[in-house]
Amino acid sequence: MIGAALGPLGFGCAGIGNLYRGMTDADAAAALHAAWDGGSRYFDTAPHYGLGLSERRLGAFLSGKPRDEFVVSTKVGRLLVENSEFSGEELDDEGFAVPARYRRQWDPSEAGIRRSLEESLDRMGLERADILYLHDPDAYDLAAGIEQGLPALEKLRAEGAVDAIGVGANSAQTLLACVEAAELDYIMLAGRYTLLDQPAAQQLLPRCLEKGVQVINVGVYNSGILARPRVSAGSHYNYAPASGELRAKAARIAEVCEKFGADLPTAALHFSLRHPAIAAVVAGASSAAQAAQNASRMQVRVDEELWEALAEEGLIPDAC
């Protein structure tokens, strides 16, 4: 297991793959530098992020760092293949502001996973990845991911090609099925154990504790609704506009947090580490200022009485 090198705060590299908007190589490097200067030594990426752009930018940054001082995870399941219909102008249609030179092809086979890993390492200029995740298998074919992808990951780990393996997904039930089906080291849990919403606490996190699977908690701002001190009418939750009920709950959480000297995003970061199954939080950033702000928030001391006050109002479960 990778252990303490992961946390508490890792850097998520979707943003440096031009998630939702373009950024320059210089701005991407500045965000990575700010994360490093803030203490992050765990960097998570994927071929999916900017059709390989995130991996290339991360690799360029890490090329100047001693290999034993950082941990890298990437993902498999989505191969990047040439887009025969690309004419030079089309942009990616899955949220990244990059030319659509490639398309994603689901392939959980052992051959596909080995090819994906090899291509990722080539883009990053690394000899190995520390952690390898099967990426969003439920978005394609969960049964094939479990039956083909997970044994392939176990084989790569047994061969020493990667140090640890896991699955990344947005669904607690998907991750629970994978935890039961294989001997995983980690899962990457997206948005299902946050200050606003904790469905993973019911079955998934207790089972991870029982099996010794460590949890990397991501999406802890729930697509933006917890990312600012004040909740706005245009806030998003789970990649979509937040309902009035969720906005009201988040706004009340923010009011309680302020009484204890913590703003909403700071409390969200700290809450996301509270369960004993969670080894680290990974937060992304699209600028150096955002990366530095995440690091600064992690250094704030949050009063334990805040969690008691939130539980008393029924805003978080008592067990959290």
Q: What this model shows, in words?
A:
This protein is of the alpha/beta class. The relative contact order is 0.14. It has helices at residues 25-37, 53-62, 110-124, 142-159, 172-181, 204-211, 244-259, 264-271, 288-299, 304-312, and strands spanning 9-12, 42-44, 71-76, 78-82, 102-106, 129-135, 162-169, 186-190, 214-218, 236-237, 240-241, 278-284. Helix 6 links the parallel strand 8 and strand 9. 37% of the residues lie in helices and 18% in strands. It contains ten helices and twelve strands. The chain has a single domain (3-219, 261-301), classed as NADP-dependent oxidoreductase domain (TIM Barrel). An eight-stranded parallel barrel has the order 1-2-3-6-7-8-9-12, surrounded by five helices. It has a two-stranded antiparallel sheet with strand order 4-5.
